[in-house]
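re: ur question from earlier - yeah i can do the single chain one, its not a big deal. heres the input i used so u can compare w yours
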Amino acid sequence: MINRCLKTRYLAAIYCKLAGVDSTPEPPPNPTGRDNVMDIRKVKKLIELLEESNISEIEIQEGEESVRISRHPNGSTNWQTPMPQPYEAPAAAAPQAPAAEPAADAAPAYQGHTVNSPMVGTFYRSPAPGSKAFVEIGSSVKKGETICIVEAMKMMNQIEADRDGVIEAFLVEDGEPVEFDQPMLVIA
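and the output i got, formated as tokens:
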């Protein structure tokens, strides 16, 4: 009980100091006849002081009445997140090789039909780690035969040959991620 009284007196003293009111005289009589009603002029003065200072919240209690004034209602704040700046990669240095020479690193051009990934996922040549691959380069395949797996969201999706032919090349390594419509292998 003593701590509550001291806390109330302390808050009242702060309130009076902020409101610029002397704490010793009695407040003017209230026209409504209620005794413990906070003076609206004090509340307005507190609002002005709050706006002028860097205080974000103040709570005052007089008797049974209390008021809390805050810059941000319900404790919410309006934070603005800075937009990320686009990253511009530095320009690559020009190659020193003569222009007449063909590119040695160019991917070999395969003749035949490419089987593309129907979804984003991970390419696998075999049904399980360590087991035999569905097909090898040079294997003959029939339309509808399983040739690989694309794992997407822990689901193993069997990819079937969409035509008869011979596997000419794998364009993706086992366990490598693939994008939608990315060529995975070539059927000649």
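The mean pLDDT is 75. not sure if urs matches, ping me
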